[in-house]
Amino acid sequence: MLLPLVVSATFASAEPAQASDAIVDIPLTHDAKVFSRYDDDYPAILTFFSQLSESEIKSFYDAELGEPTSAKTVYGRLELKYSQNDRSYRVIIDSLQENHREVDVLVSE
Questions:
Q1: How many beta carbons lie within 10 A of that of residue 27, not counting itself?
Q2: Which of 9, 16, 27, 29 is deepest in the core (most CB within 10 A)?
Q3: What are residue 101's DSSP bridge partners?
Q4: Other beta carbons within 10 Å of 76
Q5: Is the pLDDT of residue 82 over 60?
Q6: How far apart are CA 103 and CA 57, in angstroms?
Q7: CB 85: neighbour CB atoms within 10 A?
Q8: Separation of alpha carbons 102 and 92, rounded Å
Q9: 5-64: per-residue pLDDT in tens?
Q10: 8-state DSSP, 95
């Protein structure tokens, strides 16, 4: 029972997506509420929350990054891998929790 309380507190503290002085440009969905951002160097990591469905988030990243090189579900999370401009992107979409999904994006050179 502690997990839903922690997730709620975490989601409540998330900030709306905003421009930053990032070196690594990581695409965000229109409704992204950024929780953590480490995009000033590689490997870059971005975690945000979205109310979009899993398929809408996947479609967004397909449009932004092209067709995934792999897609698999691990522990109930959809893990997508993309390759674009000599960079590797790993997008992990968590299952729905209290009307939102956690999305982790990892980018490496």
A1: 14
A2: 29
A3: 50
A4: 7
A5: yes
A6: 9
A7: 7
A8: 8
A9: 344 444 444 444 444 566 888 999 999 999 999 988 899 999 999 999 999 999 999 999
A10: P
pLDDT score, position 9: 41
Residue 99, helix vs strand vs coil: coil
Tell me how far apart the alpha carbons of residues 34 and 18 are, in angstroms, rounded to a whole number.
8
Residues 6+ apart with CB under 8 A from 30: none
Return the sign of the alpha-carbon dihedral for residues 81, 82, 87, 90.
negative
pTM metric for this prediction? 0.79
Amino acid letter for position 94:
D
Residues 96, 58: Cα–Cα separation, whole Å: 14
Strand, coil or helix: what is 24? Answer: coil
Residue 49's SS3 state is strand
Contact between 95 and 101 under an 8 Å Cβ cutoff? The reply is: yes
Pairing mode of beta strands 70-74, 77-84? antiparallel
Give the per-residue pLDDT at 83.
95
